[in-house]
Amino acid sequence: MIRFLALSLCASSAAAESGLAAWLRYAPLQGGESYHSSLPSHIVALNTSSASPVYVAGQELQQGIQSIYGKQCNVHHSYDGASSSIIVGTLDEYTKAYGSLSNPPNLIEDGYWLNTEGNTIQILGKNERGALYGTFAYLSMLAQGNLTKVAYSSNPNAPVRWTNEWDNLDGSIERGFAGNSNWFANGVIVSNLTRTAEYARLLASIGINAVVVNNVNANASLLTPQNIEGLGRIADVMRPYGVQVGISLYFSSPTSGVKGQANLTTFDPLDESVVAWWTNVTGQIYQQVPDMAGYLVKANSEGQPGPLTYNRTLAQGANLFAKALQPHGGIVMFRAFVYNNLNETDWYADRANAQIQFFKPLDGEFDSNVIIQIKYGPIDFQVREPASPLFANIPKSNAAIELQVTQEYLGQQCHLVYLAPLWKTILDFDLRVDNESSLVRDVVSGQRFNHSLGGYAGVVNVGTNDTWIGSHMAMSNLYAYGRLAWDPTLDSQYVLQEWIRLTFNADQSVVNTMTQISMESWPAYENYSGNLGEQTLTDILYTHFGPNPQTQDNTVWGQWTRADHTTIGMDRTVSNGTGFAGNYPPEIAAMYENIATTPDNLLLWFHHVNYTHLLHSGETVIQDFYDQHYAGAATAQTFATMWESLKGKIDDERYYDQLFRQVYQAGHSLVWRDAISNFYNNISGIPDAAHRVGNHPYRIEAESMQLDGYKPYTVIPFEAASNYTAIVTSSNTTTGTAQTMITCPSGTYDVAVNYFDQFGGHSHFVVSLNNVTIGEWTANLKPWIGSSEGPRVLGHTPSIYIDGHSATRITFSNVTVAKGDMLKIVGTPNGIEPAPLDYVSLLPLGIVD
Ligand code: GCW
Predict the structure, then answer these.
(1) Residue 380 annotated in active site
(2) Which CATH class is domain 160-503?
(3) Does the domain made of 32-154 have the CATH classification 3.30.70.270?
(4) Residue 781: what pLDDT?
(5) How many CB atoms lie under 10 A from the CB of residue 777?
(6) Has residue 8 got a pLDDT over 60?
(7) Taking every annotated instance into account, which residue ranges of this chain make up the domain Glycosyl hydrolase family 67 catalytic (predicted)?
(8) What is the pLDDT of residue 793?
(9) Of these residues, 302, 436, 564, 587, which one is catalytic?
């Protein structure tokens, strides 16, 4: 049984925590000195080169033990016979020096053996980075106050455990919510790579072994000699952590006029000059980066060039790179995210079928060092999708799963969504190929179809922000990604709690509270963004952040819902629809084909039904929509309150930062709830049986107030504003006033104001009662005025419009209000932002609406 020491963090709230150290804080444990005798006194790292992961392991052990327990250990590079040592190295080096272990562990590449049972602790890797992984596993125990004696070996589930970073050469990051690139600026690789090294250290501690440093929407100028030299520098700083560099390629680079490289007139993958071009460039890269991991390729997708231009197959395209890489030991991650524009008037058209159409016929044609990298679902990182059937359809090809750590469609780090439970629904899904157990995780490990290559690609998109990905709590997703890529059988809550203890502390109430919030977060987000398999009902044409369900339909992008006045959902059956269900092996196909056996949470993914269709739950589709959206938003309200119970139990810096986000999420979840409920209420004409939708007794619509210098504004999309209407100042330079007399009974209320915070202006608002100010704020994504913390930035993709992305709420609690008081809001516009207001809610305590 695991024994956690009854230790707690020293004065946790005192130390400022920016988040930079993430889960590698090595926070001092109170009373750590009393355990010095059970800790080793010497560290023996069986390598003397500072570029070696084994050397780094020695340093890391010294630093960790010193910091956590206050015990100083010396690092040696050969065993001096002293007992009470830790020996870290490769199994081979260990065996050379001390002879074989009595029971040699069965290790594969990157695996390790950790034995703390004897007088000498052994941390032995199959290779050098395996030794570092074992070191981090041991330090993780120590940092959690776990001094249990263990002796076990651990091997990775799959060889490929990479991150993908969508960094552009200009320094921006596509779908990044944490600042700019750590390694690119102004078209080149930056000189200061400190953060890159720190990132590699973090990644090593969770078993990640390569980083693809540039966006899959690639840029040919990555291949200039100057940038290739820069890649060498990145590789040099990451190598001591066992993290390799990979790069994304732009398929038509040979014709792109890359400075310092030949310029061809074709990029046909079968043309000899093109083959020679890539062979040559690949050779140049390996000169700078002898251990380059490989290439990632997005071809013929979303405007990216590819082999189809020349009537070559995707396999011919992939193999072009495979052959160039093969002599150097590199691999090609070839993305399955390929689809064409479609016409929604065609009932049988379906973007979800595209991968099967493109890749299934090519199975067996990919070179052995090509891995097909498949997003977890057939569409695009949605809040819920069925497992991509491609995992079942290319048994002769290597496969990897692509997960998205950055929360593009899942709240962009401004909504807390712990993703491991979502990923587990896919990884644990049994595709029943040939009526046999065929878990997705066993397909990507290579085990199911006997491949030695396969694994995981996680789109992370870390930026320069100290929190790495934009919010402290969202880092649980990066941690879980690494842990699951190493061992997908791990339980998501177990992984989460490891992360909480390491990142915050082991106080039981901290662990319990953060666990509850995190474990409830994905279901809540699904409920208020898009339930019943309806995808994240966000604005797919703009920011992918706030609600905008109608953007899903009448586009060529194929993320359709087919909602009309009476029906909704994609008919993906074989019998009457797009046939997508038939892409699964027979047992699964039969389940999804039949509405009676399709789970409610994927109903609208597979079936087109009336709003009045009865779910397994007994509820109608439309009522379930209303109920779940209300339930999800209600759950999100509790997160902020639960978070408040952590005051003083964690450091103030992270406490306030996350509180700001939880308060924001509580408000924005209401925007989601109302927008989706109103939209479907409007389109279906079916009222909410519980009379909530469109019925808000506590609200005062801004447009119904007495306006001076303000005018009504019809919001697009209509559902993004209460009563479809907001108010804006008459000009962008003059102040507006909205006022009304309070008619509700005198008492204490929470006063919530819904307004819009557009990008491109910082309007100022003052709310008063009888000319006594009860609150004021600037619409700049900062916390409420009066709190002591500095400015905070949410970091989601900005919107310049008055819409569901910019809609937000501020609440002033416990305000004494008397009937007959004059409630007044004065809005001062700024920049493009005309101080837009939606409504004021006077909420009796305990009610949120
Ligand atoms: O969903 C889309 C994203 C794009 C991304 C693309 C992909 C890098 O919105 O930003 O492009 O997926 O995965 O290629």
Answers:
(1) yes
(2) alpha beta
(3) no
(4) 72
(5) 20
(6) no
(7) 145-468
(8) 81
(9) 302
